[in-house]
Amino acid sequence: MISRLPVRRFAALLSLPLLAVMATACSDSTSSQVASVSLALTDAPGDVDSVWVDIREIYLQGENGRTPLLSEDAAADLELVELTQLAGSTLDLVSDVEIPAGTYGQMRFVIDGAVLETEGGEVFVYNAIHPHGATATGDLKCPSCSQSGIKVQLPGDVADLEGGAHLIVLDFDVSQSFGHEAGGSGMWVMHPVIRGAEVGFTGTVSGTVDVERDDQDAPLVTIPECPAGTPRDLTAFVPRADAQTLTDDEGEAITATTTVAQDGTFTFPFLSPDEYDFTYESEVAFGDETLTFTATAPGIVEVTLGANLTVEYVVTAATCS
User: Fold this and answer.
1) Domains in the chain with CATH codes
2) What is the DSSP track for 164-193?
3) In this predicted model, what pLDDT tens digit does every residue of 185-201 receive, in sequence order?
4) Distance between CA atoms of 54 and 270, rounded to whole angstroms?
5) Which helix (H) or strand (E) holds 14?
6) 87-105 pLDDT, tens per residue?
């Protein structure tokens, strides 16, 4: 059994000799190689107040069946993990689990339950109760939360774990996973999106979002209340990065979103090398209202191994309807 594992900042991860979102391996060419795997969890939050998940198991699927990384016994001590507190930080899930070295076709993330709390205080639950005792006001549906678990999006050959030590960071993208409110039905629909990549084989893209300004630097665009009475600012803007060639094992393009701070800054900390189309979510739902953005976006940017790039968005219009 393990105790609740520590949260650490991205800066600590980025100081490691091998920066990797998934597991990285050391050298040993014998047939009895073992790979030592560590898992960390991070999040790119969405337009909800809080999200908690009950993690039951994380495992690799290979030709010899399941290989546990986070066992059910170990996961039991995590209790409910609050994903929305992990922006800009990571939660260590397991450390130095030894597994047979080799190629694994899939990584799967099994969720037993989840709780979503909206900005308006509504609580939607899937096989769980609110950690602070708030009463559930609706259901949180998860069609993909089956016994087999959710596939982690793994780009390229990152599931080839040779002998040695590996660090895996899993990005549970709240913006994509919990952005589906079934309007008028009293429920939210959860479609979990989890990305994995090897830190030592990634690049970082940071940037800024600002509204269009005149020659005197006065803003030409005001982000409206949405819904009426609820102020919005640049934190409502959702940058998006769509890989142009990297796909998961089902052939779907790897996509990432991130959160914007109040000063307009943001970071995509772990992007596997590829060309990415940097766009944005043009429509962001807040209850029954939709905040619609028009902006100039960076477009195609090549992210290389170890890159530290900067990009810029400019909001030219914002409406709520």
Assistant:
1) 7-201 (no CATH), 203-320 (2.60.40.10)
2) EEEEEEEEEEHHHHS--EETTTTEEE----
3) 667 888 888 887 666 67
4) 24
5) helix 10-14
6) 666 788 888 888 888 888 7
For 206-249, what is each residue's pLDDT tens digit?
Answer: 999 999 999 999 999 999 999 899 999 999 999 999 999 988 76
- Assigned token pair, 313: 């968005």
The pTM score is 0.69
For 176, list phi and psi in degrees, rounded to 5. -85, -30
Alpha-carbon distance of 159 to 136, in angstroms, equals: 39
Question: Which amino acid, residue 152?
Answer: V
Instruction: Give the span between the Cα atoms of 159 and 103, in whole angstroms.
Output: 6
In terms of Cβ atoms closer than 10 Å to its own Cβ (0-12, 13-18, 19+), residue 71 is middle
Return the SS3 of 245. Answer: strand
Q: How far apart are CA 243 and CA 273, in angstroms?
A: 9
The helix (H) or strand (E) run that includes residue 209 is strand 203-211
